[in-house]
Every structure is written in C-alpha cells, then in structure tokens.
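Dear all,

This email documents one entry for the complex benchmark we are building for the journal club exercise. For each entry we list the sequence lines for every component of the assembly. Then comes the predicted three-dimensional structure of the complex as a token string, followed by one or two observations. Please use this as the template for your own entries, and keep the labels exactly as they appear.
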Amino acid sequence: MTRKDVSLVLRLFLDSARLQKKRATLTIASIAWGTVTILLLLAFGEGLKRQFSRNERAMGENLAIHWPGETSKVWKGLPIGRPIQPRIDDIATLRERIPECDAIWGEMRNSRTAYSYGRKTVNANVTGTSWIYGDPRKHYSRPGGRFLDARDEEEKRRVIFLGYELADDIFGKEDPVGKTLLVNNSPFTVIGVMQNKTQTSSYGNPDRMHAVIPITTYRALFGKDQLWVLVFHTRQPEDMDMALARANEVMSVRYGYDPTDKHVWGIWNTVEGQAESAKIFLGMEIFFGLIGALTLIVGAVGVANIMYAVVKERTREIGVKMALGARRRWITGPFILEGMIYTLLGGLGGALVAILIVTLLGLIPPDRAKVIEFMGKPTLSWPIGVATVAILGTAGLLAGYFPARRAASIDPAETLRYE
Amino acid sequence: MTTAATTPVIEMQAIRKTYDTGKVKVEALKGIDLAVAPGEFVAVVGPSGSGKSTLMNLIGCLDTATDGSYRLAGENVAGLERDALADIRNRRVGFVFQNFNLLPQISSFENVEMPLLFGGIAPKKRKERVAELMTRVGLADRMDHKPTELSGGQMQRVAIARALAMDPAILLADEPTGNLDTSSGSDVMSIFADLWQQGRTLIVITHDLSLARRAGRIIEVRDGRIISDGAAAA
C-alpha cells in the first residue's frame, strides 16, 4: 500500500460512510451485543473457576490423605487381611525420610465428643493433630486468637481451636477466645476460632464443624496411639508422586507388607483432583468461549450481509469508479475499512458495557448474595481480552473481506451498459 | 496530446470478442479493423445487438478482446492486468454515458474531481482543474450541487467535464443525447462540436442521426462487423 492508496481509500470510505449513519449504528450495535455476550460469558466462567478453585482449596492444596486399611497380599509368610495401624512415632521417621514433603502429620479423631460450656452441651468431632496442620489445612484464626503451636504440643497443653460453626453453636454471640469449656468433661482453653471459609471438599467433616487439639494432649486424654489418617503435604504438586512412593517404601518396611499391595492404604491425592478440575474448567471456558464466539460471528455475518447489500446497491457506482480508473484496492479498501471500523467501534462499545456490568456486579458484597459465594464474581482477565480481540479482529476482517471481494469482481462493462 | 499526429490514436487489427455464457458462445465481434487518427470525430451507428456496445467497451478498455491486437495512443492494451487497464482508462479515456452515471451522493465538484483523485493529482491542482472544466461546460455556479439537484442537460455537462478531467486521448460517448430533451441534446452536441474543433478525438455511439451527421466519419456496425466506414454526408 502506498501513501496514495491509503489516502484514496480513506477519502472514498469517508464519502460513503457519511451517507449511512443509521445502518452503521445498527451494525455497530450488533457487534457490540456480540462482544458483551462473549465477554460476560467468559467473565462468569473465569469468576466461577476462580471461586470454585478457591473453595476447593479451602481444605488445602497438594495434600494426600492416607486411611489405613488391611493387607490383601501374602508377604514373607504373613497372611492377608492383616490391619496396618500407623502410630504417632511413625511420623518422625516419615518426616526424616521424605524430603519432598514440607509437612507430614497424623490425625486422631473422636466423633460425638461432648463440648460443654455453661449449661449448653454440643456433640461434634474433635481432631488431635500436630501444630503444623494449621497452615496447609487453612485453619486461620480470627483476629484475637491463634492456632496451636509447637509448645502446645510439647507441653500437652489443654488448648483447643474451634471451627467457626461449632464455636457459634457452643458460645452463641459470646467471644470464645480465652474461655474454658469441657471436652468430655476435661477443661480446655479456647485459643482461637477459625476464619469463615467456603469449603467444598473435605475428609471427615467440614472444618467449620470440628475442633482441633494438640495430638499429644489427645493421646493423654483418650489413651490412644493409633492414627486415623496420615496426611502428606508438598510445596509443589509435581513432587507428590515421589513423596508417596517414598512413604509407601518406608511404611512397607516398617510394617512388613508388600509394597505393591494397593489395599493397605486408602489414598486421596488431591493433586490428581486439582488437575482434573483444571481440565473441567478449561473445557467449560472453551465451551463459553465458543458460545460467545458464535454470537459474535452472527454479528459479523450481519455486518457482511449488510455490506453485501451495500455492494449490490452500489454496483453501478463501483462500475463507474472502475471506468474512471479506480484500481482494485481502491474499490476493496473502503469496504474492508468499513467492516473493520464497525467491528472496532462495536467491540469497544461492547467491551465498555461488559466492563461496566462486571464492575457493578463486583460491588455487591459477597455476604449479601449467597450466590456469589459459590458462583464467584465475574472477572475479566487479560487472556479473555486477548481472545476477544482476536475473535473480533477475525470477524471484522471476514465481514469486510468477502463483500469487498464481491465488489472487486464487478465487471464495469456489464454494469454500465444498461439502465 | 502524448502521441505524434501521424500515429493513430486507435489501432485495432482483427479484433474478435466471444462471450462464453456456459453452453452458448456468442461471437459479438467477428474481426474488426479500425484506425482512428487524432482529432477525428467518429460516430458509430448500428442496430441494437450489432456489437457496437462491445466495440465501445473494447475501445474504452472496459473489456479485453478475445483475439486481435489493439493499440490505444500507441500503447498495447491486449493482455493487460485489471489494474493496468484501470490506469489506462484513467489517463487515456473519457467516458460519457447515456444515463450520465454521476455518483448521486457527492457534489458535481467531487464527481469531476474523481478521475483526478485516481490519477494522483495534487489537491491544489485538482481544485484548479475542476474549476476550469466546470467553467468550460458553463456550470461554474453549480459546483456544490449534487447531481440530483441538476437538470438532465446539466448532469450530462458535468459528466463531460468529468470525462475531460485527465485530458484523455479519446472521448468516448455512448448515446450521450439519448436521455435528453431536444434543447439539452443540442447543447451537448454543440459542446462536442466545440471539442472537435479544439482538436479532440471523439467517438460517439449513437442512434441520433442529427448527432451522427455532425461527426466527420460514420462507421456502421452490423452483426459484429464494420459494414461501412466513410465521411459523413455533409
């Protein structure tokens, strides 16, 4: 394209554009509508995804929970059906032998534990575990309290950390921190209450319903040494497979079972679940994107359609311009420009509307709308923007290109001959 | 004029044009030999379907011949690309149509300016040239009017001004008086006569005998061939 081409195309485009404001407005509106659709769909999808994974992560990430089971294979003269029962002192060995894990802990659990405060008694689970459980399991304390720490564990302190729903059940509107309650008739001091969180996955009960005490205190109180579950946490998800292989190795030697025996442990590896739901959400995003893209393409087809009509209507005009010496690109240029400008303006308008809607929805406080707690807030991200621009650009080019090609194929001799 | 007076402006040899409409092939021109010298005023006459419109399209480079050779102002036109043909039309040919073919949404000024735009003439020169041409056809005061605000005769004068814009080698007119009443028609005819006197080469396709009689040479086309070619009966 030379400078002459550019200025000519621009001039010819302006000549024709000023004639058809109404048509231009409608065309731009249809593209804007398509843009709003695609952006909102993708924004809702993104918000849902983020909220979902936030809720899913509320239990913690990169965890593998091991429930002990029984052997199903004969091993060195030992029969099948032998229960494997990990104990507290296995944990130190496991921590030493599995460098991939940044946290390993055991949990003991007693369901239907009686919590009494004043004249009120509530039954719920109590979990006895290590103080390192707090961070990976997202047991964050409300302001004014704390989770268990190493000294609590060392000194077998009678301290308790409460799930927020359990705390509400026992204490009502009172602040539980610092208060003493009875756990199966033994006095415990409340050191913290968990922050609210929307949690969609759990083993045992949702975290809001249980209470946590130091594992050492638990052993002293209930007189048990056997773990209910053994939990492994890695910093990176890709380290999990290695960590679990080592864990199996260590435990099979310690307890004497066939390392290939899959029945010894019931394992829930959340890393696999994370990958799985990432795939599901990718699929969902592609689906939303497709619906949006189709809507936009309908808009683009509308633009192309209108421009075909324009080409047809202006056949004689195009023929005349050709007779006067217009080169092919001076004929096609204005049409392509028209298609692109309509798409651009429509895209910008649609994007503004979509941003406005998303911003307004974002202003709704989550505790006022329960839906948002699960659906999440619609979120516009850069990838969404890039995808939309790409789709819009393609649509705009196609909308202009085909009618322009039709215009260029006009035979001036044919159009000028008859009335 | 870009060519020496001795070489013809139009030089056609054994020109054939066949339209292929799928199953049927229509031979519109069956071997035309034609030479037009600079400054000639040629009228092409013939019944409809004789091939005279096809001939005009070929002369005006709106279409290319199936066979034969054609030189326009010394330039070989056969086998040129569409864009090259567009350039030749822009520089060498001025068209005047029966139905004027002015662009209705733009002013007469912009209509006359259009070929200058395509010819890459600078804006200032364009303006001067358009003003000069509009004065010449007697419409200096109508430059801002749109074609729809003009009478038929005025529209055709604007069209003539447009055809002359790039100072072409030939002025090609297809029934230029066909849509005009007698008085506007004779206005147009006298403009043509003036142009001829100024040494311009004119080719007019017409049914109008009074217009044909003003030409210096009448070519009669029938059935795709030239059947007579001679000086107009005075």
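Observations: The domain at 10-229 of chain B is CATH 3.40.50.300 (Rossmann fold). The mean pLDDT of chain B is 90.
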